[in-house]
Amino acid sequence: MSNTVRVRVPAKVNLALSVGGTDTQGFHELATVFQAVSLGDEVTAEVARPGEFKLAFHGEGAAFLPVDDTNLAIRAAKLLARHAELDDVGVSLVIRKRIPVAGGMAGGSADAAAVLVACSALWGLGLTREELHPLAAELGSDVPFLLLGGTAIGTGRGEQLAPLMTSGTYHWTFALSHTGLSTPSVFKEFDRLSTPGQPAVADELVEALRAGDVPAVGAALSNDLEEAAISLQPTLAHTLRLGRDAGALGSIVSGSGPTCAFLAGSEAHSHEIAEALAVFSGVRAVRRAYGPVAGAQVMG
Ligand SMILES: C[C@@](CO)(OP(=O)(O)O)[C@H](O)COP(=O)(O)OP(=O)(O)OC[C@H]1O[C@@H](n2ccc(N)nc2=O)[C@H](O)[C@@H]1O
Ligand SMILES: Nc1ncnc2c1ncn2[C@@H]1O[C@H](COP(=O)(O)OP(=O)(O)O)[C@@H](O)[C@H]1O
């Protein structure tokens, strides 16, 4: 057994996000289509003294992230140790972040999924994705999808997953904001602005994904949280317009935002969209990625 394990994990974009009413715990019923994209974090897990759980970040947003027990990465490691009834383990985690923090791309959830996979390998547990699923769902609604990757329909809180067979490669340009948005506050704003119905994923999107019809996928992108995200960060409306003017096949707020996602017709087109977005002062940075890619995976 190795003393060090490295895991690569993707970010996600919601190609559709249909939001319904709330359950008894205040969680909204969702029907969503997730796609895992190549903008990802890397987690290195190293054996530490029993009972020692350490965390450090490098890269995107590292200075703003907590490294104590409130971090989802530490919570994931401790949850797995408890679940496996291991009281003599410890881990030192180093996370290289590329996924924007509080950006609607599930960065924290991705790190939690990666830590479950890394610690399962590090501690010789060899748990399957199916065995890790309940732990992932306990950590957060988005965490199970980051274990799975690819493209999938999510229902319930987003944790009940059905993989979707798709064709083709999807090239994305992402516009990052200067400030993040908190997921609960975006759902709260959604409740203020909307009367939710029964959440559903449009057949047009599923058909277009199966056929690999990228323009039709672009036309079918939808997000019920978009209005709420724009209400909290009005500059997003201008960012979305810039991407549309640059010929994006679809322009959408990613999840609860504020990252905006633009579907391009090719890799070259994704560069053109990135250049058009980079000139706007409301955009902190642009990133390009493609999907679908695999979920959290041990490297090497
Ligand atoms: C909106 C989505 C879309 O994929 O992701 P982000 O765009 O934030 O990454 C997800 O639903 C976010 O999932 P995740 O970030 O894992 O949320 P959780 O930790 O489970 O919940 C954080 C908070 O979000 C709200 N929440 C989350 C999921 C859900 N189905 N209904 C909710 O109302 C609740 O207020 C909850 O307390
Ligand atoms: N490992 C982590 N990476 C990113 N954010 C984290 C992490 N652990 C806890 N957080 C906290 O979770 C919040 C949501 O971050 P994130 O998961 O990046 O965004 P989102 O839910 O919009 O996709 C942030 O405010 C951040 O402080």
Automatic annotation (TrEMBL):
The domain of life for this entry's organism is Bacteria
Q: Which UniProt keywords apply?
A: ATP-binding, Isoprene biosynthesis, Kinase, Nucleotide-binding, Transferase
* An example molecular function term from Gene Ontology annotations: kinase activity
Q: What is its EC number?
A: 2.7.1.148
Q: Name one Pfam family in it.
A: GHMP_kinases_N
Ranges of residues in domain GHMP kinase N-terminal: 71-150
The record ties this protein, via InterPro entries, to: GHMP_kinase_C_dom (IPR013750), GHMP_kinase_C_sf (IPR036554), GHMP_kinase_N_dom (IPR006204), IspE (IPR004424), Ribosomal_Su5_D2-typ_SF (IPR020568), Ribsml_uS5_D2-typ_fold_subgr (IPR014721)
The residues listed in the UniProt record as binding ATP, with positions renumbered to this chain, are 100-110
**Residues of the GHMP kinase C-terminal domain:** 205-277
What is catalyzed by this enzyme?
4-CDP-2-C-methyl-D-erythritol + ATP = 4-CDP-2-C-methyl-D-erythritol 2-phosphate + ADP + H(+)
Pathway assigned in UniProt: Isoprenoid biosynthesis; isopentenyl diphosphate biosynthesis via DXP pathway; isopentenyl diphosphate from 1-deoxy-D-xylulose 5-phosphate: step 3/6
What is the enzyme's class at the highest EC level? transferase
Q: Which residues form the active site?
A: 12, 142
NCBIfam families given in the database record? ispE (TIGR00154), PRK03188.1 (NF002870)
Biological role: Catalyzes the phosphorylation of the position 2 hydroxy group of 4-diphosphocytidyl-2C-methyl-D-erythritol.
**Belongs to which family?**
Belongs to the GHMP kinase family. IspE subfamily.
Listed name of the protein: 4-diphosphocytidyl-2-C-methyl-D-erythritol kinase
> What organism is listed for this UniProt entry?
Tessaracoccus lubricantis
What's the gene? ispE
